[in-house]
Amino acid sequence: MSTNPNLFLSIGKPVKDEYGRSVGRIVSFALTPSGKFDSAYIELSDGKFQKQPMEHLTFNGAEVTFNSKIRTQANVFCDQIPFIWRKDQALKDLSEKKKIAPDLYNELHTNFDGVLKQLRKDAQTLQDEVVTEIARCNEEIKALNYALVHLELEHEVGKIAEESYKSAFALLQESLKRSNTEKTDMELTKTRLSNILLGDSIDALQKSKVYATVATNMPSDLPEPPVVVYVKEIGKAGI
What is the pLDDT of residue 49? Predict the structure, then answer.
């Protein structure tokens, strides 16, 4: 049975999100019969337990980071949608060059098209989740700013001791920094998903001259996918 004994050293270690917030601590692992680490059991900060797939966790020595599910899924969609589109276009080229039989082309094209439709549907659902997260960040930032203003007011009229004021001020500033960073990340994720979905829509309408191509590490003999130059505020599917 092959296992990584170093991961067991993480049991009892704190888990934080990408922005340094406390999530909980590792209490156990689930392994497959072959000894592969499948998931981790986390005791959350509120005392509840949660099972998380290993792909959502990053282990760096004693540090354990819980990675954003939304950003992880967005990366998958932004990789898979253009790649499947390229494969479908390459298939079309082979058909036009009479290198594959029409019935085989139709079957494969139907498969690729079905996968793309599901990916786009899941990407749209994820984009809606991103919008919700951005709204949450905005509310959190607003609440923190109110807290900061009230702290300043009470300190100004002498109701809060200097040491307590400095400690609370530092905590609020750090929380604001984290919330703003998360909001920026969510806005960038929303833009990436919008680019992919808008590019697909224009491709469906055959407006091929409206988009710009994006270089990737995909094989050079495959055509580039449509990606719209989409400028705005910075702000689920298996194959």
Answer: 92
Looking at domain 5-67, does it have CATH number 2.30.30.240?
yes
**Rounded distance between C-alpha atoms, residue 129 and residue 197, angstroms:** 15
Give dist(CA 225, CA 214) in Å, integer: 8
For residue 2, give every residue at least 6 positions away whose Cβ sits within 8 Å of its Cβ, in sequence order, or none.
Answer: 34, 35, 36
Amino acid at 184: T
Tell me which residue of 64, 44, 40, 63 sits closest to 52, measured CA to CA.
Answer: 40
Mean pLDDT for the stretch of residues 164-173: 96
Write out the chain in H/E/C secondary structure.
CCCCHHHHCCCCCEEEECCCCEEEEEEEEEECCCCCEEEEEEEECCCCEEEEEHHHEEEECCEEEECCHHHHHHHHHHHHHHHHHHHHHHHHHHHHCCCCCHHHHHHHHHHHHHHHHHHHHHHHHHHHHHHHHHHHHHHHHHHHHHHHHHHHHHHHCCCCCHHHHHHHHHHHHHHHHHHHHHHHHHHHHHHHHHHHHHHHHHHHCCCCCCCECCCCCCCCCCCCCCECCCCCCCCCCCC
Residue 140 reports pLDDT greater than 50: yes
* Predicted local distance difference test score (pLDDT) of residue 87: 94
Domain definitions of the chain by residue range: 5-67, 70-204
- Summarize the confidence of residues 118-137 as an average pLDDT: 96
Q: Name the pTM for this structure.
A: 0.73
At residue 200 the predicted structure's pLDDT band, cuts being 50, 70 and 90, is low
